[in-house]
Design a protein that fits this description.
By secondary structure, the protein is α/β, with parallel strands linked by helices. It has one domain: P-loop containing nucleotide triphosphate hydrolases (Rossmann fold, 3-Layer(aba) Sandwich). Helix content is 55%, strand content 11%. The chain contains ten helices and five strands. Strands 2-3-1-4-5 form a five-stranded parallel beta sheet, with helices on both faces. It is globular and about 40 Å long. About 6% of the residues have low confidence. The protein binds adenosine monophosphate (AMP).
Length: 210
C-alpha cells in the first residue's frame, strides 16, 4: 500500500509517517529529510538547495523526483511507501504516478492532515526551539505556507477526482490523529473517500496582509 501524507508544513506528516513505519512496516520517503541529509553531508546537491530551503521556497521538481525515483528503485521489495512532503506540485504527482506504474503499483490513499494556520505557526516555533531548523522561522514559514497554498493545494482536486483523498483532523493530539489515520487505512484496503477540496485563507493572510 502506498500512502501520501498531505498537508501544510508542520501539520504532523513526519510524526504520523514514523508511526506508520513502526506499525505497518512501510518505508517513509520524506524529500525534506533527504534534502537535509544532503546538506548535512555537504554534497553538491546539498549546497545547491540550501538557500532555497532556508528561504522556504520549493526546490525544482527534477531534483525531488530524482530522489524519489532512486528510493523506489532501491527498495524493490518494499511492502509500500509513505510519501511525506512529496508530491508538492502537479508535475511531481504525475511523475509519481508514472514511477509507481512502472513497478505495477499506484498511490492507494492520500490523507490530508487539516490544521489551522495559527496552530501551524505555534508548532513551527516549538520545533525551532527543539530542532533548530533554519526554515522554522516566521518569515520562511510565511513563504512555505504561501507555496503550499499556491502550488501544493492544487493537488487536492487531482487526488479527490480519483477518489483517493480523505481528510483527517490534524488538530487533535498525536494518538487521536494516528487512530483516525488507521481508521482510514483499515476501512477498505485503500481507505479512500472523495472529499471536496477546501483551501482556507486564514491567520497568515490577516497577519501578513495577503
Ligand atoms: P519539509 O521537511 O517537507 O518541510 O521540506 C523542507 C524543505 O525542503 C521545503 O521547504 C522545500 O524547500 C524542500 N522540499 C522538500 N520536499 C520538496 C518537494 N517535494 N518539492 C520541492 N521542495 C521540497
Amino acid at each position: 500500500m502506498n500512502i501520501i501524507l498531505f498537508g501544510p508544513p508542520a501539520a504532523g506528516k513526519g510524526t504520523q509517517a514514523k508511526k506508520l513505519v513502526a506499525e505497518r512496516g512501510l518505508i517513509q520517503l520524506s524529500t525534506g529529510d533527504m534534502l537535509r541529509a544532503a546538506r548535512a553531508s555537504g554534497t553538491e546537491l546539498g549546497k545547491k538547495v540550501a538557500g532555497i530551503m532556508d528561504r522556504g521556497d520549493l526546490v525544482s521538481d527534477d531534483i525531488v523526483i530524482a530522489l524519489i525515483e532512486e528510493q523506489i528503485e532501491n527498495n524493490p521489495n518494499a511492502k509500500g511507501f509513505i510519501f511525506d512532503g512529496f508530491p508538492r506540485t502537479v508535475a511531481q504527482a504525475e511523475a509519481l504516478d508514472l514511477l509507481l506504474s512502472k513497478h505495477n503499483t499506484k498511490v492507494n490513499s492520500v490523507i490530508r492532515l487539516c490544521v489551522d494556520d495559527e496552530a501551524l505557526l505555534a508548532r513551527v516555533t516549538k520545533r525551532f526551539e527543539e530542532e533548530g531548523r533554519k526554515d522554522d522561522n516566521p518569515e520562511s514559514f510565511k513563504v512555505r505556507l504561501g507555496n503550499y497554498n499556491a502550488q501544493t493545494a492544487q493537488l487536492l482536486p487531482y487526488y479527490s477526482s480519483q477518489g483517493k483523498l480523505t481528510e483527517v483532523d490534524g488538530m487533535a493530539n498525536i494518538d487521536a490523529v494516528s487512530a483516525a489515520v488507521a481508521k482510514v487505512l483499515n476501512k477498505n484496503g485503500n481507505g479512500a473517500d472523495v472529499t471536496a477540496p477546501v483551501v482556507k485563507k486564514g491567520f497568515f493572510a490577516r497577519l501578513f496582509g495577503r
